[in-house]
C-alpha cells in the first residue's frame, strides 16, 4: 500500500485504548511468516536425511566407503565459501539497518559472487565424478552396474541432495538480484527492510543445510579414506 | 444501501475495471474463499461421478461398462480429486478464508497477496492433475497413494499427478503459513488464545499440520520423480531401494493429513452445537486442547498403514499402541458436544441437523477405526471394503458432512440471504439415508472378505454391492438437491439481517450482510468468551462502533 | 520489534566476526577430527560439530536469541524430525527382521561379504 498506514484503535469498556495490529506494516508478522516457511525447509531436508539414514543403517560399510571417495578438498572449500557468504549477507543487512545503503548493496554483490563461485566449484566436482563414471543415469549408477547397493544409494542421494541444495543457491541468487532491484527502486530502505531481513534469513538456512550435508556426505568416511577422493 | 464485498475489492495488481478481472485479481479473503468453494465443488462432482461409474460397474460381477485398467484409473482419479483437490484444502481454504479473519476481528489475512498467489497455485495444480486425462497414456492408475515400485514402472501419466500433488501441497503449506501468522498477529485486542472461537482453534491446529507435514510428502514426491526419471535407486528394489521407505515418508504426511481434514470440521461442529443449543459450550478448554493434542498425536501414528508392508514387529506394536491414543481426545470432544446439548434449548435448523447426523456417522467411522488399529484384526481387514467403509464414514460422514453443515450455517453470512429451510432439511434426510445405505453394507462385505480396488468380485458379494448402488443413487439425488436448494437460496432467498441464528461469535456482528470489504466497521475489544448465553439469549451486544452495550 | 530499532553497527559487526572465527575454527576441527579424536565414532563427532555450528548460526546470524515464540516453534519442528528418526530408524529399521533373506540388503552381484551384514550400526 502506497499511502501511510494508520493503525486502528479499539476501546474497551473502561475506555482504555488498544492499538489494533493490521496486516500492513507488520514487521514481526513478516518475520514470523518467513520463519515458518523455513520450518518447511527443515522438514523437507529432514525427510531426505531420514531416507539417507535409513539406507545408512542398512548398508553402513558401503556408506563409509562411498563417503571416503568424495573430494573433501573441494567440499571443504565450498564450506568456507558459504561461511564467508553468510558473513557478507549478515553485514549487508547490518549496513542496511544502520543506513549505509551503498555499503549494503556492495555486500549483497559480494554474496552473489561467492554463491556463483560455490556453484562453479560444485560444477567441477560433479564433472570429476562424471568422468569417474559416477553420475545419475550414467556408468556405475546404471541398474546393470555391479556397484554395491549401498554405494548406489549413497551417490543417488548425494546427487539429489546436493542438487537440491544447489537449486536453493540458484534461487538465492535470484532473490538477491531481486532485492538489489527493490533497493534501487527505494522499496527496501533502512526503514522498511523486512525483505532484506527475510532474504538474509533464507541465505542462512541455505548455509545451515550445507552445515549438515557436508559432514554427512564428505566426512563420515574420512577416517577410512585419504584426504581427497578422485 | 451500503457497499458489500460483492461490490468492491482490493486487487493484487492495479485497479481493473471489469468485474471478471476484479474477481481474478482479488485479494479479499472472502472472495478468495468463494472462488475456492466454486472450484472445489466442481471437482467434487467430477469425483462423485467417477465414483458412481465404479458403483455402476460393480453392480454385477464380471465386466459390464469399463475394463479393469479403466477401473484402476477411475479410483485413482476419484482418490486424487477427493483427497488433493477437495478434502485436504477443503474447509481451511473455504471457511478458513471466509470466516476465520471475521471471527478474530481482522481486516484480512496476514499476507493477502500470498493468499491470492496460493489460490492460483492451487488452480495450477488442479489443471496439471486433470490435464493428464487427455495427454499421453492417460490418468495414473496407481491409486492416490502412488505406492512404489508400481508407480515408478507404470506407463500412465504418474508424473503429472506427482507434480500436481507437489504443487497442491505447496498451496496447502502457504495457506497454513498464512493462517498461522494471521492467528498469531491479527487477533482483535483482548482476544487471548482461550477467547478464540473453537473453529479458529481447529484452523490453528490444522495449519500446523499443513505447515510441518506437507513438506515431507513434497520431498517424497520429488524423490519419486527423481527415481522415475534419474534412477537414483531410492524406492526401486532393483537398485537396492526399499518401497517401505516410500510408505513411511508418504504416510508421515498422509496420516496427519487425515487430522488436517477433520480438525477444522470439528471446529465447525463446535461452532454449531452451542449456537443451536443456546448454551455456552461445555468444556471449552478441553475441546481447544484436544484439537492441539489430536494434531500432536496425529504425527506419531502413520505406521498403522504399514502393518502388512513388512515393517518390524516392534514398530507395529508401537504404532498400534499410539493409534489408540487418538481416540481419547476425539472422545473428549464428543462428550463435550453432547454435554453442551444437555438441557439446552435445541433449535433443529438445518446446520444443527447436519451436525447431529455427523455425530452418528463419525462415531461409526471413528470406532471402526479403533478396531482396525489393532494389528491382528487389521491383518484380516487391511485393504478390504471394511477399511473403505471406515474411511468414508470418517471422511465423508465426518469432514464433508460438517463442511455441508458449515455451508448451511454460514450461508446467510456469505450471501446475506436465507435458503428454504424445509427443502434443505429434506436434502439432509436424503443425504443421510443414502449415505448410510451406500456405505454400511461395505462393512459387512469387507468383513466377509471383499477386497478393495477390485473391479470384479465373487457372486456372494452381489447383494452388498446392489444395496450400495441404490444408496449411491439416493445420496447423489440428495447432493444435487442440496446444492439446488442453496443456489436457489442465493438467487431468490429472503434477505436476512446480520445475525439470523442469534450466534455470539464476532463474524455475526458485522455492520452489514453480506459483510463490507474490510469487515468490521470498528475492531472490538474482546473481553468475553466466544459462546456466552444466558437463559438462551446471547449475552454480548455491540453498538455501531463495536463498543459493548450489555 | 519495530522497524526503527537503532543499530549499534560496530558492536553487532564484532559479533558477526567473532561468530565467523568460531565457525571457521569448527570447520577446521571437522577436518582434523577423523585423525585426532573419537576416531571410532567419526559420524557422531561430525554431527556434534555440525550441531554446534548450526546453533551458532541460528542464534547469532539468524537472530533467534531472545525470540521466545519463534524459538519454541523451531524447537517443536526439530523435535518432530527427531521423533521421525527415532521411530523410523530406531524402532523400525534397526529391528528389520528379514535382513538375511531380503534382496535389498544383500548385494545382488558384488561378492558375499555383505550378505549377513547386520541391520544396525
Q: What do you see in this structure?
A:
The complex is a heterotrimer of chains A (230), B (550) and C (121). Chain A has 230 residues and is mainly alpha-helical. Chain A has a single domain, classed as Cytochrome c oxidase, subunit III, four-helix bundle (Four Helix Bundle (Hemerythrin (Met), subunit A), Up-down Bundle). Chain A has helices spanning 27-58, 60-68, 72-98, 101-131, 149-184, 194-219, and strands spanning 9-11, 17-19, 134-135, 138-139. The radius of gyration of chain A is 23 Å and the shape is elongated. The mean pLDDT of chain B is 94. In chain B, helix 3 (68-87) runs antiparallel to helix 6 and helix 10 (243-277) packs parallel to helix 15 (385-409). In chain B, the strands form two sheets. Chain B has a two-stranded antiparallel ribbon with strand order 1-2. Chain B has a two-stranded antiparallel sheet with strand order 3-4. Chain C is built from three helices and no strands. In chain C, helix 1 (9-36) packs antiparallel against helix 2. Classes of the chains: A mainly alpha (230), B mainly alpha (550), C mainly alpha (121). At the A-C interface, helix 1, helix 2, helix 3 and helix 6 of A face helix 1, helix 2 and helix 3 of C.
Highest CATH level, the class of chain A = Mainly Alpha
Q: Which homologous superfamily in CATH is the superfamily of chain A?
A: Cytochrome c oxidase, subunit III, four-helix bundle
Overall body shape of chain C: flat
Number of strands of chain A: 4
Distance linking N and C termini of chain A: 56 Å
Amino acid at each position: 500500500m502506497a499511502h501511510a498506514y494508520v493503525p486502528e484503535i479499539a476501546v474497551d469498556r473502561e475506555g482504555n485504548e488498544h492499538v489494533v495490529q493490521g496486516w500492513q506494516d507488520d514487521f514481526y508478522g513478516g518475520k514470523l511468516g518467513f520463519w515458518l516457511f523455513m520450518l518447511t525447509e527443515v522438514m523437507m531436508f529432514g525427510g531426505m536425511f531420514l531416507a539417507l539414514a535409513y539406507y545408512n543403517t542398512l548398508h553402513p560399510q558401503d556408506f563409509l566407503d562411498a563417503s571416503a571417495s568424495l573430494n573433501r578438498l573441494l567440499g571443504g572449500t565450498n564450506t568456507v565459501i558459504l561461511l564467508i557468504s553468510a558473513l557478507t549477507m549478515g553485514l549487508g543487512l547490518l549496513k542496511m539497518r544502520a543506513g549505509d545503503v551503498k555499503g549494503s548493496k556492495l555486500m549483497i554483490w559480494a554474496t552473489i559472487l561467492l554463491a556463483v563461485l560455490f556453484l562453479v566449484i560444485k560444477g567441477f566436482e560433479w564433472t570429476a565424478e562424471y568422468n569417474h563414471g559416477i553420475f545419475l543415469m550414467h556408468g556405475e549408477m546404471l541398474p546393470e552396474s555391479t556397484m554395491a547397493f549401498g554405494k548406489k544409494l549413497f551417490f543417488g542421494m548425494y546427487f539429489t541432495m546436493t542438487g537440491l541444495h544447489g537449486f536453493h543457491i540458484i534461487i538465492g541468487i535470484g532473490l538477491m538480484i531481486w532485492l538489489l532491484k527493490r533497493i534501487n527502486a527505494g522499496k527496501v530502505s533502512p526503514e522498511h527492510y523486512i525483505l532484506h531481513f527475510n532474504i538474509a534469513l533464507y541465505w542462512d538456512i541455505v548455509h545451515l543445510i550445507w552445515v549438515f550435508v557436508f559432514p554427512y556426505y564428505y566426512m563420515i568416511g574420512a577416517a577410512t579414506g585419504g584426504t581427497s577422493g578422485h | 444501501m451500503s457497499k458489500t464485498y460483492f461490490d468492491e475489492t482490493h486487487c493484487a495488481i492495479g485497479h481493473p475495471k471489469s468485474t471478471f478481472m476484479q474477481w481474478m485479481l482479488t485479494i479479499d479473503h472472502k472472495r478468495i474463499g468463494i472462488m475456492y468453494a466454486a472450484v472445489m465443488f466442481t471437482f467434487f462432482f467430477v469425483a462423485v461421478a467417477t465414483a458412481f461409474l465404479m458403483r455402476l460397474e460393480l453392480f454385477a460381477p464380471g465386466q459390464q461398462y469399463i475394463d479393469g485398467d479403466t477401473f484402476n484409473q477411475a479410483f485413482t482419479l476419484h482418490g486424487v480429486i477427493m483427497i488433493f483437490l477437495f478434502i485436504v484444502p477443503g474447509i481451511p481454504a473455504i471457511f478458513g478464508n471466509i470466516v476465520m479473519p471475521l471471527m478474530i476481528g481482522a481486516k484480512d489475512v496476514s499476507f493477502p497477496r500470498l493468499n491470492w498467489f496460493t489460490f492460483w497455485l492451487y488452480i495450477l495444480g488442479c489443471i496439471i492433475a486433470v490435464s493428464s486425462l487427455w495427454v499421453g497414456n492417460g490418468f495414473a492408475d496407481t491409486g492416490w497413494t502412488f505406492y512404489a515400485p508400481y508407480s515408478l514402472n507404470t506407463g500412465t501419466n504418474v508424473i503429472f499427478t506427482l507434480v500436481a500433488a507437489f504443487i497442491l501441497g505447496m498451496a496447502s503449506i502457504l495457506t497454513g503459513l498464512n493462517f498461522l501468522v494471521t492467528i498469531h498477529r491479527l487477533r482483535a485486542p483482548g482476544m487471548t488464545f482461550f477467547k478464540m472461537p473453537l473453529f479458529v482453534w481447529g484452523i490453528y491446529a490444522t495449519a500446523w499440520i499443513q505447515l510441518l507435514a506437507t513438506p515431507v510428502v513434497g520431498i517424497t514426491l520429488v524423490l519419486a520423480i527423481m527415481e522415475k526419471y534419474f534412477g537414483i535407486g531410492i524406492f526401486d528394489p532393483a537398485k537396492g531401494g526399499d518401497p517401505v521407505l516410500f510408505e513411511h515418508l508418504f504416510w508421515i504426511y498422509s496420516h496427519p493429513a487425515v487430522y488436517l481434514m477433520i480438525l477444522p470440521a470439528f471446529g465447525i461442529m463446535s461452532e454449531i452445537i452451542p449456537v443451536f443449543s443456546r448454551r455456552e459450550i461445555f468444556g471449552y478448554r478441553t475441546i481447544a486442547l484436544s484439537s492441539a493434542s489430536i494434531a500432536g498425536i496425529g504425527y506419531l501414528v502413520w505406521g498403522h498403514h504399514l502393518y502388512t508392508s513388512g515393517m518390524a514387529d516392534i514398530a507395529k506394536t508401537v504404532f498400534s499402541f499410539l493409534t489408540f491414543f487418538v481416540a481419547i481426545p476425539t472422545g473428549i470432544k464428543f462428550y463435550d458436544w453432547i454435554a453442551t446439548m444437555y438441557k439446552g434449548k435445541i433449535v433443529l435448523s438445518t446446520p444443527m441437523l447436519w451436525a447431529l447426523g455427523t455425530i452418528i456417522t463419525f462415531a461409526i467411522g471413528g470406532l471402526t477405526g479403533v478396531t482396525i488399529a489393532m494389528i491382528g484384526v487389521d491383518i484380516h481387514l487391511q485393504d478390504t471394503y471394511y477399511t473403505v467403509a471406515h474411511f468414508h464414514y470418517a471422511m465423508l460422514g465426518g469432514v464433508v458432512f460438517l463442511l455441508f453443515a458449515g455451508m448451511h450455517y454460514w450461508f446467510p453470512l456469505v450471501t446475506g440471504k436465507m435458503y428454504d429451510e424445509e427443502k434443505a432439511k429434506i436434502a439432509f434426510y436424503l443425504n443421510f439415508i443414502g449415505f448410510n445405505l451406500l456405505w454400511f453394507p461395505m462393512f459387512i462385505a469387507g468383513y466377509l472378505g471383499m477386497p478393495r480396488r477390485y473391479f470384479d468380485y465373487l457372486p456372494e458379494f452381489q447383494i452388498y454391492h446392489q444395496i450400495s448402488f441404490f444408496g449411491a443413487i439416493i445420496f447423489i439425488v440428495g447432493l444435487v438437491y442440496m446444492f439446488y436448494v442453496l443456489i436457489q437460496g442465493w438467487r431468490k432467498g429472503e434477505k436476512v439481517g446480520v445475525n439470523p441464528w442469534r450466534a455470539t461469535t464476532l463474524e455475526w456482528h458485522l455492520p452489514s450482510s453480506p459483510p463490507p470489504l474490510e469487515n468490521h466497521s470498528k475492531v472490538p475489544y474482546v473481553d468475553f468468551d466466544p459462546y456466552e448465553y444466558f437463559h438462551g439469549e446471547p449475552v454480548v451486544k455491540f453498538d455501531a462502533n463495536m463498543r459493548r452495550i450489555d | 520489534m519495530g522497524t526503527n530499532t537503532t543499530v549499534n553497527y560496530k558492536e553487532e559487526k564484532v559479533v558477526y566476526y567473532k561468530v565467523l572465527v568460531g565457525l571457521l575454527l569448527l570447520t577446521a576441527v571437522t577436518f582434523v577430527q577423523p585423525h585426532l579424536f573419537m576416531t571410532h565414532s567419526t559420524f557422531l563427532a561430525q554431527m556434534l560439530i555440525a550441531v554446534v555450528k548450526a546453533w551458532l548460526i541460528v542464534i547469532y546470524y539468524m537472530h533467534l536469541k531472545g525470540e521466545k515464540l519463534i524459538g519454541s516453534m523451531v524447537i517443536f519442528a526439530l523435535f518432530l524430525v527427531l521423533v521421525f528418526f527415532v521411530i523410523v530408524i530406531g524402532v523400525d529399521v534397526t529391528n528389520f527382521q528379514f535382513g538375511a533373506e531380503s534382496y535389498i540388503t544383500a548385494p545382488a552381484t558384488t561378492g558375499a561379504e555383505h550378505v549377513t551384514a547386520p541391520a544396525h550400526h
